Amino acid sequence: MKRLKIYPKTFFYTLGLMLFIVLTAHMLLYVLTPKVIFDISSGPGSGDLTLTGEVNLSPYITQMLQRVLPISLLCCVVVSVICSLLFSRQITVPVTQISAVTERMAHMDKTAACETRAKDEIGALARNINGLYQTLLSAIENLEMEKQRVREAERSKVDFMRAASHELKTPLTALNATLENMILGIGKYQDVETYLPVCKEMAEQLSDMIQGILEASRAGAPQNSEAPVPIDLPELLFTVCEPYKQIAEARGIVFCTDFSGSFTVRLPPKLFSKALSNILANAVAYTSPGKTVSVYFKGPALIIENACTPIPAEALPHLFEPFYRPDYARNRDDGGNGLGLYITDMLLGAMGLSYSFLPMEQPDGMRFVIYISGLSKAL
Fold first, then answer.
1. What are the phi and psi torsion angles at 111 (to 5°)?
2. For the chain, which end, N or C, has fewer CB atoms within 10 Å of the first or last residue's CB respectively?
3. What local confidence, expressed as pLDDT, does residue 369 receive?
4. How is 197-260 classified by DSSP, letter by letter?
């Protein structure tokens, strides 16, 4: 019996119970049938003839029961079989269907779903299984996305380290060669007083690059994340823009700001200030004297524009890669270390802010737009 499937098992259990009830009822009916004695008598006043006596009807009732009980028993057995079949089917078919569907779910068939038309406990079970399966699929999908994100992050780290190693290799080689020539006193390198400042400048460039690499490695790291707080955006922008405004004025660049209106927004102030500083540093560095750098609001967007030679379209997709510099800015003195926009991309992504960086037509230049979600005008 233990090896039978649920349908025949339920059928035999139900049939056995019903047959037991039928047999018990017939046996009780046969055993407990009372003995009936019929009394026949006529009292006075019925004429000259007087009849008295008793008639025992038990043998006749027993004989009748012996004739009727087999037919009744047979009919009850047939009815029991039919009822057991119907009852077993009614109970086991939904369970069998749920079992078949769960087997498909075990093979991760995303279209598998139990029917939930019933309002009883089986229907509740089917709904619970559907809900559990959808939760499982959602969890698996999230895990796959997280796995893909981690894989991309690991790939990015490997690419970043390769690029960093390549970038550090050139100035390190140059510094080592210069120092070695100075030590050996080869040719022009005998003039130590001339080349010591050159070595110091190379060391400073290496220090700047290493500092940039450290900042890039820390950007967006969970342990260095900053909780967003309500900040007065114009006040923060004024503080961040002030040093770059002074640098721009020293270079003969017009630095325009328009922070009209009062705005509040929930942002991590240090991360946002660092991202904004990188954008402003690039804007000032690539703007020629006499040109303009503008910082202003336009709806829920912060816009930084600088009049310059527009970056070629083929270079735009690579601007946010580590150590990338356009061809016309390959010189580190002019083009920086190539990490500013890479760090900006990581910081803005960590804050959940979208952005765009596209050329302008009138006047020629570049426009960086940060779309600040949740920006609201303060009353």
1. -90, -5
2. C
3. 93
4. HHHHHHHHHHHHHHHHHHHHHHTT-GGG----EEEEHHHHHHHHHHHHHHHHHHTT-EEEEE--
Q: Are strands 376-377 and 263-267 parallel, antiparallel or unpaired?
A: antiparallel
Closest CA to 173 of 163, 165, 183: 165
CA dist., res. 121 & res. 102, Å (int): 17
Distance from chain centroid for Cα 24: 63
Six-digit token string for 80: 């029991």
pLDDT digits (tens, 9 = 90+) for 169-227: 777 888 888 888 888 888 888 888 888 888 888 888 788 778 777 776 666 555 456 77
* Cα-to-chain-centroid distance, residue 61: 80
CA torsion sign, 245 to 249 to 251 to 257?
positive
Strand order across the beta sheet in which 292-297 lies: 254-258, 292-297, 301-307, 365-371, 354-360
As a whole number of angstroms, the distance between CA 301 and CA 368 comes to 10
DSSP label at residue 317: G
> For 57-72, what is each residue's pLDDT tens digit?
667 767 777 777 788 8
CA 213 vs. chain centroid, Å, equals 30
Going 315 to 245 to 235 to 339, the CA torsion angle's sign is positive
The model's confidence at residue 301, banded by pLDDT at 50, 70 and 90, is: confident
For the record, the structure tokens of 149 come out as 């994100």
Query: What pLDDT sits at residue 370?
Result: 92
Per the CB < 8 A criterion, the answer to whether 293 and 256 are in contact is yes
pLDDT band at 232, cuts 50/70/90? confident
- Provide the token pair at 17: 């119970």
Q: Is 115:97 a contact under the CB 8 Å cutoff?
A: yes
Smallest CA-to-CA distance from 280 within 309, 313, 318, 247 is with 247
- Rounded to the nearest 5 degrees, what angle is found at the Cα of 166, between the Cα atoms of 163 and 167? 85
Tens of pLDDT, residues 29-50: 777 666 656 555 555 554 555 5
Residue among 229, 262, 237, 295 nearest 376 (CA): 262
Q: Which residue has the higher pLDDT, 345 or 42?
A: 345
Cα–Cα distance, 44 to 298 (Å, whole number): 126
Measured CA to CA, the distance from residue 257 to residue 280 in angstroms comes to 12
